[in-house]
């Protein structure tokens, strides 16, 4: 590869249009060509440039998009991850925390904040309120800041955590069962070993808090097993809160014996525990690219090349760390990074690598291979950091004896590496993590992180001129490659090792995460995907198994949980076809509805409008509105789409609905954009634009029905829709960029159609 100039088509493959779209939209700076991009993101490091061209390594998204742009006067950071100092129990500190979040978001960083130091609800305070509204009440403030502040159309990302011993933890657990609250933050509970022991023994557990200012002690006894059950039950139903097994986090790393060090929280996807003001740079190695002779009996993993890539990746991340040190948004961040120097080297493409090796994800032989790869990665990374310490000096807070006595270090180093650290110390206090790689892996066409393949294929839908939906399969790239290599035409004939997230036994899924956690000194961003029939009891057992297997954190995403169905309304009133609607009766839609979609440009940005029509009459039945990444208030869109849908299914004709929408008046931002950019959709505000789009789609639907019937029925009175109870399409999550369905992987909503990721 050295000396050979490439273009992006050669790099990603001319057939990988999605990958090239992602590169163009997310990582390319203006009109730079591929070679200029490589030069910019590699910082002139030829070794790492070679590995990027070979698709063996990629920096994290912030580095790929931002590196070098500070020279153009842009306020950027190279770090994906930050943890702000936890707010103290006073109003000044609480709002200082909000200010720090806003400033960090404006540079493109995501944040974690722990609220365990805030007083619980009802604590006595010396102001007009007389008692506090509690720690949980301030989560809305931090969520609001997250929704308001972003960079380049990218909303901030936030993790809020609380200790399991805090008296407000029951309220914290329940908070997001209200789907309108704190909807721009992930939430997790810090769970300690004493709590888990109380869970196993079915004992009482003391929630406690002492308010320093007044000396007031607040205590409350709860049944540990009941509280744990509620954590798992809400995760089953709402995919939150996640669990952070805090003693494992603090006890399994290179600094577990360093008394002056402590973790303040975790970043938004929980793969990076960090101190107050802490930050981390990310990069991932594509394990799939190190498999030689794939899909054959002679397949093997190239450990020597892998070790060299690990070594060069550690060096490259340290170069980025040094270059980006003055670019952090806050002084406390610059101070923390200079003292501790965390980097986060991870992996992606694991599932693909196992398939190329002919191994089944989660089974004993696959776990054994991962154990070996993980150890080699840890040992090599620690040795590389020690060599950098020889060359450039150890990180300022490095205490060699304390590091070398940690359980993590002893379990993950060879004698040669131990000797290097003994002589030179380490350049970095934290080295390895497994972060979400949704957008990166989608761009390269590989599996993300340590996740199994989500599905062997995805269904895509096209709509014919006559309103008939045609579905076709788009195979995951590793599946497509195998089928072409072995001339397999039917995916049902794939070997047994093509397991997917929904068919995998959860014990195997956790076994895989557990073996990798043995070798990762930070943590792992990962979500266990389970089918809709997965029970609350199984979820509770999954959490217990995750704790016993030494995971640092766990969350699940159950297909069909209420997070998926935020916009789904399920009526119980059933009527039969041809029966007139009485007051209060609601039509239930069939699953043969015809869907149409429009992308609107409004005063705030983009807006996707999906409309579902009765296939026999063309009547409007459902509307789904989804704002783009910069497109206005999502809660307003949810409410408006619900009201339009309930009106349509209540028998109100589309002309009346659109007439009401057109009576909304004009919006100043809509008018301003129309004058300045001249690209807004027809209308003077969002409701009017939606109404016009619905009418346009309705007329198109009527024309299609007319053609199908062989005669012109335009202007004919609309008959009532058929009413047969069945689930519609509104129980899916949709992409804000392209409007297609989302999947939930690695703790993030990810679009397989355009590459959008909530965590990018």
Automatic annotation (TrEMBL):
Signal peptide: none annotated. It catalyses: a 2'-deoxyribonucleoside 5'-diphosphate + [thioredoxin]-disulfide + H2O = a ribonucleoside 5'-diphosphate + [thioredoxin]-dithiol. Its EC number is 1.17.4.1. GO terms for molecular function: cobalamin binding; nucleotide binding; ribonucleoside-diphosphate reductase activity, thioredoxin disulfide as acceptor. One of its GO terms (biological process) is DNA biosynthetic process. Keywords: Cobalamin, Cobalt, Disulfide bond, DNA synthesis, Nucleotide-binding, Oxidoreductase. Residues 592-697 form the TSCPD domain. InterPro entries: RdRp_reductase_class-2, RNR_lg_C, RNR_NrdJ/NrdZ, TSCPD_dom. The keyword Nucleus does not apply. Residues 79-556 form the Ribonucleotide reductase large subunit C-terminal domain. Residues 704-723 are annotated as: Disordered. Its cofactor is adenosylcob(III)alamin. Residues 704-716 have a biased composition (Basic and acidic residues). PANTHER family: RIBONUCLEOSIDE-DIPHOSPHATE REDUCTASE (PTHR43371:SF1), VITAMIN B12-DEPENDENT RIBONUCLEOTIDE REDUCTASE (PTHR43371). Belongs to the ribonucleoside diphosphate reductase class-2 family. Catalyzes the reduction of ribonucleotides to deoxyribonucleotides. May function to provide a pool of deoxyribonucleotide precursors for DNA repair during oxygen limitation and/or for immediate growth after restoration of oxygen. This is Vitamin B12-dependent ribonucleotide reductase.
């Amino acid at each position: 590869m050295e000396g050979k100039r490439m273009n992006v088509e050669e790099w990603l493959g001319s057939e990988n249009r999605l990958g090239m779209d992602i590169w163009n939209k997310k990582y390319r700076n203006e009109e730079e060509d591929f070679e200029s991009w490589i030069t910019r993101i590699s910082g002139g490091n030829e070794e790492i440039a070679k590995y990027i061209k070979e698709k063996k390594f990629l920096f994290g998204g912030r580095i790929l998009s931002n590196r070098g742009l500070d020279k153009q006067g842009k306020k950027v950071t190279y770090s994906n991850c930050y943890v702000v100092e936890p707010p103290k129990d006073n109003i000044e500190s609480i709002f200082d925390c909000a200010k720090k979040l806003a400033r960090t978001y404006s540079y493109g960083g995501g944040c974690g904040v722990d609220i365990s130091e805030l007083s619980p609800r009802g604590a006595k305070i010396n102001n007009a309120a007389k008692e506090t509204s509690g720690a949980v009440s301030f989560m809305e403030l931090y969520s609001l800041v997250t929704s308001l502040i972003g960079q380049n159309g990218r909303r901030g990302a936030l993790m809020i955590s609380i200790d399991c011993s805090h008296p407000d933890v029951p309220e914290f657990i329940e908070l997001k069962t209200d789907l309108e609250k704190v909807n721009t933050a992930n939430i997790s509970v810090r769970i300690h070993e004493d709590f888990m022991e109380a869970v196993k023994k079915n004992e009482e557990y003391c929630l406690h808090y002492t308010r320093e200012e007044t000396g007031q002690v607040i205590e409350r006894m709860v049944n540990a097993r009941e509280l744990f059950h509620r954590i798992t039950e809400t995760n089953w139903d709402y995919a939150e809160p996640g669990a952070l097994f805090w003693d494992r986090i603090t006890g399994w790393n290179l600094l577990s014996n360093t008394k002056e060090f402590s973790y303040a929280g975790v970043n938004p996807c929980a793969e990076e525990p960090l101190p107050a003001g802490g930050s981390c740079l990310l990069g991932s190695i594509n394990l799939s690219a190190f498999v030689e002779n794939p899909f054959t009996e002679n397949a093997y993993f190239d450990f020597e090349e892998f070790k060299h890539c690990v070594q060069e990746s550690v060096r490259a991340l340290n170069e980025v760390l040094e270059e980006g040190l003055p670019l952090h948004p806050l002084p406390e961040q610059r101070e923390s990074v200079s003292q501790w120097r965390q980097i986060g080297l991870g992996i992606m493409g694991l599932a693909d690598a196992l398939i190329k090796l002919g191994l089944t994800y989660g089974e004993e032989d696959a776990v054994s291979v991962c154990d070996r790869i993980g150890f080699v990665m840890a040992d090599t990374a620690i040795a590389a950091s020690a060599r950098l310490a020889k060359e450039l000096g150890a990180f300022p807070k490095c205490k060699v004896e304390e590091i070398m006595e940690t359980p993590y270090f002893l379990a993950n180093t060879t004698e040669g590496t131990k000797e290097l650290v003994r002589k030179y110390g380490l350049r970095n206090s934290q080295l390895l993590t497994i972060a979400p790689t949704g957008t990166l892996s989608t761009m390269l066409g590989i599996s993300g992180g340590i996740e199994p393949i989500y599905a062997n294929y995805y269904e895509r839908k096209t709509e014919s001129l006559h309103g008939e939906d045609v579905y076709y399969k788009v195979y995951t790239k590793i599946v497509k490659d195998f089928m072409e290599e072995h001339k397999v035409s039917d995916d049902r004939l794939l070997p047994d090792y093509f397991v997917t997230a929904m068919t995998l036994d959860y014990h195997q899924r956790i076994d895989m995460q557990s073996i990798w956690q043995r070798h990762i000194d930070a943590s792992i961003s990962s979500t266990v995907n389970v089918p809709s029939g997965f029970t609350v009891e199984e979820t509770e057992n999954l959490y217990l198994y995750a704790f016993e297997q030494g995971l640092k954190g766990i969350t699940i995403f159950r297909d069909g949980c209420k997070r998926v169905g935020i916009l789904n309304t399920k009526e119980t009133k059933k009527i039969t076809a041809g029966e007139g609607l009485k007051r209060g009766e609601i039509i239930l839609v069939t699953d043969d509805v015809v869907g149409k979609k429009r992308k609107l440009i409004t005063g705030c940005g983009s807006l996707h409008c999906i409309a579902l029509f009765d296939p026999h009459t063309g009547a409007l039945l459902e509307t789904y509105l989804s704002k783009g990444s910069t497109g206005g208030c999502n809660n307003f869109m949810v409410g408006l789409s619900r009201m339009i849908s309930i009106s349509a299914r209540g028998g109100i004709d589309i002309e009346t609905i659109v007439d009401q929408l057109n009576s909304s008046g004009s919006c100043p931002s809509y008018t301003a954009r129309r004058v300045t950019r001249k690209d807004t959709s027809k209308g003077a505000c969002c409701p009017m634009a939606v109404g016009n789009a619905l009418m346009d789609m309705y007329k198109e639907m009527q024309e299609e029905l007319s053609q199908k019937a062989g005669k012109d029925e335009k202007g004919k009175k609309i008959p009532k829709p058929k009413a047969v109870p069945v689930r519609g399409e509104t129980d899916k999550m949709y992409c804000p960029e392209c409007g297609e369905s989302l999947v939930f992987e690695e703790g993030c909503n990810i679009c397989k159609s355009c590459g959008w990721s909530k965590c990018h």
